[in-house]
Amino acid sequence: MLFFTLRRLLLLLITLLILTLVSFTLMHLYPGDTIVNMTGIRTTDPLFYEQLVQQRQLDENLLVQYVNYLTHLLQGDWGQSLVTNQAVANSALPILMATIELCLLAMLVAMVLGIPLGVLAAVKRGSWLDKLIVMKSLTGYSIPVFWLAQLLILLFAVQLNWLPITGQLNPLYDISVNTGSVLIDVMLSEQPYRWSALLDALQHLLLPVVVLAMMPMTMLIRIMRNAMLDVLKRNYIKAARARGLSESRLLWKHALPNAMQPLVRQLGFQFSLLLTNAIVTEVIFNWPGMGSWLVKGIFERDYPVIQGCLISLALFVLVVNTLVELYHAWRYPQVRQELYAES
Amino acid sequence: MPKANLYYQDRVPSPLTLIWQNFSRNRLAMAALYCLGLLLITMLASHALAPYDANQQFAESLSVAPSWTDAGDMRYLFGTDDLGRDMLSRIIIGSIYSFGYPLLIVLVAGFIGISLGALAGMSRGLKSSSLNHLLDVLLSIPSLLLALVVIAILGPSLENAVIAIVLVLIPQFLHATRNAVRDELKRDYVIASRLNGVPPRYLLWRVILPNITPVLVMHITLGISTAILDIALLGFLGLGAQAPAPEWGTMLARSLDQVYVSPWTMALPGLALFLTILSINVVGDSLRAAIKARAEES
Amino acid sequence: MKIRSTLLSTGWLSLVGVLLAGCQPQQRPEPLQQGLIYCSEGNPESFNPQLGTSGTTIDATAAQLYDRLLDYDADEKRFLPALATDWQVLDDGHRYRFHLRHDVQFHHTDYFSPSRTFNADDVLFSFRRWLDKNSAYHRVNGGSYPFFTATGLDQLITAVTKVDDYTVDIELQYSDSSFLANLASDFAIILSAEYAQQLQANGYPERIDRLPIGTGPFVFEQFRKDVLIRYQRNPDYWREGPYIEQLVYSITPNANKRMLKLLTGECDVIPYPLISEIDTLVDNRSIDVSSEISPNVAFWAFNTERPPFDDARVRRALSYAINQAAIIQAIYYGNAKQADSLLPQTSWAFANVSEAYEYNPARARQLLDEAGYGRLSIDIWAMPVQRAYNPNAYRMAELIQADLARIGVDAHIISYEWNTFRRRLARGEHDSVLIGWSADNADPDNFFRPLLSCAAVATGNNRANWCNAAFDNIIFDAISSSDREQRQRLYDRAQRLVAEQMPLVPIAHSLRYQASQASISGIKPPAYGGISFRQARIDRAATEEQ
């Protein structure tokens, strides 16, 4: 396991290096002046400009430039925004946290609802319940997320007036931004109205989380159903049943743990899909996360911000993928064997 | 040379035929396929089918409700938008942008990706599993994120959105093809052909390709649904198709301003998108099921 | 874990139930009672109105954070004392003496504690910031003061001198009939000299426009770009008000979302409600819609420095090509007057000069042919935000695009985020632009010098980049005179010249709309300049009982 972990971490490291290489190349590809794109500093002073070029070693060959770029990146110097002149690295953390909060909650909801429904559909295979669940999941993952979001907003926020439309929190609650995750920030604050603010934050979270959870949930239902059907056909289940194990014990103790394996393997991929949808969901719900920051950055031609978003989002996905794989390998050692055998 | 049937021949249907037989037994899948066919015809004949030009503005009939409502007007079946443009015509002509362009994208990306992937799969140098793993990991970065970055470089427009999506789809096709080819190479029948001294080109075209076609078709349907969604998404964000192109995502985005007065301008493009993607997903899904069923039979 | 997941799912469902049940507003928690949410349309460029002309910045800062020497009362049409208690005109209009108010406190915040009250030094500092190129703060944060350059105030004022701690003299190069009106505009605010010194000593002079200190009714607390601006009540305010404890600008660029948030009660006040939906709103009893005649104009300006717009025939052709009546119907739903000149019909200097430009595509085509342009391809920049004068520039651009297609002109619509848009406009990167102007004061001069003078080309405010010496002379003569009849004649000539040269096509004069919850009172859509929350009151109890 240790060897596997190390191998996997090394792979992560290499991927990240490639990512920085890509990002470095992009710096040259973005329209405009490379030095401005990198540092986010616009200057009309030729002396200062020269100084910047020296500092970034842009007059040297590409390898030196890249090493210099990487050093700056690692030191946390991601340039400053061309629009606000704030350091990108500093603003990135709370923004990334807002995205992580949204994604993790959505994934949680997707799993908590998707897995039992998938199991249910498999157990009641062929029944109307099964058909209903399968149909629902087919519709669920074909519906464009931005359309779904608008429909839900119209229904739950505008018509029924149950939930707020956009934002993280009623802005009148004076909660300072420390981590960027609204739930944690509210809990950390010492305001007397903390609890009503928490309830308010949960209400704001509900719609985006549901919208975002829809796609992975339907996918998980299908994966779970297929895996469960697969497992239920196996001999050891038949054997267990022949020995007179109760049906529920059979299901929970013997079938489900094995059926979870393909699901866990798929989680990383589901997370990438989720993140794609998170970008547009954030824009629709004015969620102050990476997605809306990135889209704003593209509109404002704010290249340091675009770079910051690319690196943070890719880092997030890659780390989640690595973690999922590590968990998968730890939980299901037989997979590890396969990977070893391959290498 | 006339074909003389000298020996008894047990004609084994090709893998594709086998899967088609399984597929066509699924009524839902066939319905979805007919839907797609209809959509394709609509798209190809859109300019003939649409009652008006997509950008023709009827100044005297702004925001007319669909014809089946009381306030509707028979001249405009699906009503008009806030600039007095016929919704039906816009939806029909919009299929070029929202369905035709994705098809084109997948055609181009698929051609490039599959050829490169087949080459990479057949060549010996690139077999390291670490490299394979690396590609796996890199592809976990969402394609939309990469497409957004490409747009940041090229600037927002429909053409650039198309280029961006082609660029991000190529590696996916490449990777899928390469894996499929490499998996097939290990099979007994391929090894047998090799031992027979078949040249690599024949091996690829006549031995391997027919057997991986179903998998490739599945990836192509997946690619189409990704391309449709991405084009619509970029249009929705204002980074893809620009006014006055009746692209469905763009139409949806600009309809939001009138959602209270004329909800149909939002419902229709969304519905069109939804039905298209649903059909493709049903087809892709049934295809996967059919492939799986065949694998289990053999 | 597997069994827990079902338990969790039921737990989640019941949580949903609790959330939904808890949503009906029974009793608003304490901080929500006396706080007001204004859903603004964009981020302010900075927190100092001296630096810009953007209405968004003015709305967010001018009346909330700062005071001016004097105010203008649009209803009574007279000047009111503010930080100056009274003033005298001396030396035949070449010198103005202002007597300043005593005991006016600057804001106390966690980044600044004033040690003294407002006095003449603050006036000197505030004026010299934009007036004196050698003052320490002139170059801080860009060093461009478009309003003052465009109105010529920086040329007009020769000296600002301190007579004593509470008396200031301003000397003018010539007498100017629009001088007091310009001083009462939202741009001529008073900053704290003491704060500026402290910042300079600490080496952060640029913070003066980011962490603002003023004398206004609200104190700055927090700004999160694209999310919110938070102000608290200024407890030491020198005049009556404010009545609300907290004022939050919730930044909501999407007009549709703003509208929906008003309906759901997430916004208390919104500017520029979608005109198409106003009828729905007026029916809704819990929402008030108010409007104010605000002297403004929406126009389509051509960048006259670029071909083909350097040719007046092309500009005239395009003015014939657009169907203005259709625009008034589709964009303003009839809630605007078709513009016959830059000046609104309500202005005393108005002259109807554009009868000649009726919708006439054939004439347009003919003019284009004369100018030697067969097919033409142009860019139309459409501003991304709503303004009083133009509720939806993008849609207007789409209409114009269709009109132009009819005469064989291809148009591409271009839009950026608002601040980027303005920055690029100022650099003159556009072909043509749909934008407009809201008057800062009642003087007709405010429609000419800031928009079309050569000085405004330099500041980037002259969207047509049109510099015409004859025109400059006319408007300069007009402000040097205080005889209304003579001025009227001069402005008449100016308007004719504009109509002949067509650097821009005036499109519409619109009402300024604003919608608010019925529980909010005391906020009028301003006729000139930015919105003010000084007199806003909230009475939530009254509406919740209904």
UniProtKB/TrEMBL annotation, chain A:
Q: Which GO terms describe its cellular component?
A: plasma membrane
Keywords, A to Z, come to:
Cell inner membrane, Cell membrane, Membrane, Transmembrane, Transmembrane helix, Transport
Q: Which InterPro entries match?
A: BPD_transp_1_N, MetI-like, MetI-like_sf
Bilayer-crossing regions = 9-30, 95-123, 144-163, 205-224, 267-285, 305-327
Q: Which residues form the ABC transmembrane type-1 domain?
A: 96-324
| Subcellular localization(s) per the UniProt record | Cell inner membrane; Cell membrane
Gene Ontology molecular functions? dipeptide transmembrane transporter activity
Q: Which Gene3D superfamilies match?
A: MetI-like
Membrane topology reported for the UniProt record: Multi-pass membrane protein
> In which family does this protein belong, per the annotation?
Belongs to the binding-protein-dependent transport system permease family. OppBC subfamily.
Protein name according to UniProt: Peptide ABC transporter permease
Source organism of this protein record:
Idiomarina xiamenensis 10-D-4
Automatic annotation (TrEMBL), chain B:
Indicate the transmembrane segments per the record.
28-50, 99-122, 134-155, 161-177, 216-241, 261-284
Q: Which Pfam families match?
A: BPD_transp_1 (PF00528), OppC_N (PF12911)
Matching entries from SUPFAM superfamilies are given as:
MetI-like (SSF161098)
One GO term under biological process is: transmembrane transport
Task: Name the membrane topology term.
Answer: Multi-pass membrane protein
Keywords for the protein's UniProt record, in alphabetical order = Cell inner membrane, Cell membrane, Membrane, Transmembrane, Transmembrane helix, Transport
Major location (coarse): membrane
Query: Looking at the UniProt record for this protein, which Gene Ontology cellular component terms does it annotate, in alphabetical order?
Result: plasma membrane
UniProt KW Transmembrane keyword: yes
Q: Where in the cell is it found?
A: Cell inner membrane; Cell membrane
Q: Where is the ABC transmembrane type-1 domain?
A: 99-284
UniProt similarity note: Belongs to the binding-protein-dependent transport system permease family. OppBC subfamily.
Name the record gives this protein: Peptide ABC transporter permease
From TrEMBL, chain C:
Q: Does the keyword Transcription regulation apply?
A: no
Please give the GO cellular component terms listed in this UniProt entry: ATP-binding cassette (ABC) transporter complex; outer membrane-bounded periplasmic space
Q: Which domain of life is it from?
A: Bacteria
Question: In its keyword annotation, does this UniProt entry include Signal?
Answer: yes
Q: What would you give as a GO molecular function for this chain, any one?
A: peptide transmembrane transporter activity
The Solute-binding protein family domain sits at: 80-456
Q: Which CDD domains match?
A: PBP2_DppA_like
Q: Which Gene3D superfamilies match?
A: Dipeptide-binding Protein, Domain 1, Dipeptide-binding Protein, Domain 3, Periplasmic binding protein-like II
Arranged from A to Z, the UniProt key words for this protein are: Signal
> A GO biological process this protein is involved in?
dipeptide transport
State the signal peptide span.
1-21
One Pfam entry for this protein is SBP_bac_5
Q: Which NCBIfam families match?
A: PRK15109.1
Of which family is this protein a member? Belongs to the bacterial solute-binding protein 5 family.
What name goes with this protein? Answer: Peptide ABC transporter substrate-binding protein
Upper classification of the source organism reads: Bacteria, Pseudomonadati, Pseudomonadota, Gammaproteobacteria, Alteromonadales
